[in-house]
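PT: before anyone asks, these are the final sequences, not the draft ones from last week. 422 residues across everything. Please model them as a single complex and drop the result in this thread when it's through.
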Amino acid sequence: MKQTHLFSKTVKDVPKEETSINAQLLIKAGFIDKLQAGVYSFLPLGHRVHERIKNVIREEMNAVGGQEIYMPALHPKKNWTVTGRWDEATEVMFQFVGRGDKEMGLGWTHEEIVTPLAKKFVHSYKDLPRAVYQIQDKFRNEPRAKSGLLRGREFSMKDMYSFHISAKDLENFYDEVLEAYHRIFKRMGLEALLVEASGGAFSKYSHEFQVLTENGEDLVYVCKDCGRHQNKEIVEDDNCPDCGTKRSAKKAIEVGNIFKLKNRFSEAFKFKAVDKNGQEQDIQMGCYGIGPSRIMGTIVEIMHDDNGMIWPKEVTPYQVHLLALATEDEQVKDKANRVYKNLKEAGVEVFFDDREKVSPGEKFADSDLIGLPLQILVGKKTATSSQVEVKSRDGKNLDFTDADNLTEEEGLAEAIHKYYQN
RNA sequence: CGGGCUGUAGCGCAGUGGUAGCGCGCAUCGUUCGGGACGAUGAGGUCGUGGGUUCAAAUCCCGCCAGCCCGACCA
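LR: through. Structure below.
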């Protein structure tokens, strides 16, 4: 992708009222644009990151047997009256009247949709277990949207729902998803703690995945001795219930949440299946949420420095940022174009700053702001040789920069591919 | 929903009663070119919105809308 063709641009100043780091950096770099409080457009670079995050989640959900579907966001009132949550959810749910006085609402969660859906196909223990998930925008009428992508009124969510013939089977699957969640966050460079929390409107208890950061809005009691962490909402005293250690409250961002719904929704929708003995059983359900857009904001909160963002390899919008530094020099220009072409042909995802009459300083500043893991510099220094200069955004040394055979033609693409495989 | 602050050019801001400014960005030309270069010229605004006061309102008063922060809330 040539930077001269990119839809968005970086800006030098962001509104001073945007105080959260993720909003500031993502807006400044042209990754997102705010339409209204808690509602954002994802621009090409931001969209690519968002999609990569979703793809990591997809891979891990598919790996535990989840099947991707896509449900409507526009819900009829009738499904919600079954569980009584139409009236309970007036605060959080956007509700309105459509044509013919029909009452409808926008989906803020999908138990009321997926349960009757599954009921159409599941009648016997032989049809179980099943897990379906979707990645879709959720709508929540938050009293106060804030902190950029961290708390929005429209935001992306992966929500998976699982169906089981027994509580035991639910337990097993729940544990598998829990492990899958750990893998997801690890792949994206986030250290997420497993935290016990209340079940809110869904069940008595749940597990949250929390990333510790000062900019978080949750408070987690962290036990450094035995690792039993609990959300403040269920904590009665500072001491760990397991080992008795005095725990400290730390701010955190909730990036995932999983619940055992048990028979709460299957009972409401009269969703049963016969077991091996021919006896009808309430279906046991679990639900598993994770917010890609919130994760994007969290990654920026955690991984940045004074100059800008630093994307982890798994979710970077492009693999390398190629900078043509002295475009008035025809040799430099030709060489940069060649490197771009060669890398692209070798399957490297290249973002190419081909802007002319833009000073090197501005290119460096923009490149650091955008934060791709690798920067390749083509300037007068190396114009007459076939060598290129490679820098890592995080400042760590690259073991391949010294390789003698690392030229624009040979070795470079290979080294980049290798870098991304680690 | 309570408290505080804010709304003026694409973005950031100044302008407290006399008819609209600065910086960035943008356009054209020239110079510059390894950590956000410089000069010249130019385009761009019903000052959030509705009403009121006044000879005169971006500026004063009232209502409304929108945004940010703190709190409450947060499946």
